[in-house]
Amino acid sequence: MAKIRLTKEFRFESAHVLLGYDGPCRNIHGHSYKMAVTVIGQPIKDNNSPKNGMVIDFGLLKTIVNEIIVTPFDHALIINDQTPGINEGIWHKVSEKLIIVPYQPSCENLLLDFAQKIIEKLPIPTKLHHIRLDETPNSYAEWYAEDN
Q1: 121, 104 contact by CB (below 8 A)
Q2: Would you give the end-to-end CA distance of the chain in angstroms?
Q3: Rounded to two decimals, what is the model's pTM?
Q4: Active site residue 107
Q5: How does pLDDT run along the chain (148 residues), one tens digit per residue?
Q6: For residue 31, what are the domain limits?
Q7: How many CB atoms are located within 10 Å of the residue 101 CB?
Q8: Catalytic residue chosen out of the listed positions 13, 29, 67, 75
């Protein structure tokens, strides 16, 4: 049976700080992220199923990704948990929507985090094939299941 890949695109705005970085991105700055999530699977072959012929309902994929990535990260400030001032609550005064992560919040590390979150939520037998995260109109990172 043939496998089909489905892709859904998402957009969100976030700011981040790159701790210890040797360029201007060590300062708070934001991005208009665009993310394409591609899943792979075989279309359902069940005439009694309302999802007959689908790998996954686009609406379900949208719900999953919005719940675990877009809604939490949209208009949030993302910072490394090693950033000075975390324990003193300084950063909570800078942003009402603060996401503290245990990694450098680079495009690459965000992508790794997002891939893991999506994998955990996808219904079996649908699998994550790849994700592309555009940080700017001409800079992006990609994660492929076959590479990991």
Answers
A1: no
A2: 24
A3: 0.94
A4: no
A5: 689 999 999 999 999 999 999 999 899 999 999 999 999 999 999 999 999 999 999 999 999 999 999 999 999 999 999 999 988 888 988 899 999 999 999 999 999 999 999 999 999 999 999 999 999 999 999 999 999 9
A6: 4-147
A7: 14
A8: 75
Q: Is 29 a catalytic residue?
A: no
Distance of CA 144 to the CA centre of its chain: 13
- Kindly name the residue from 9, 13, 25, 120 that is annotated as catalytic: 25
Query: Which CATH number covers residue 82?
Result: 3.30.479.10
- Based on the structure, what is the number of domains in the chain? 1
Q: Is 75 considered catalytic here?
A: yes
Query: What is the C-alpha radius of gyration for the chain, rounded to an integer number of angstroms?
Result: 18
The gap from C-alpha 35 to its chain's centroid, in whole angstroms, comes to 7
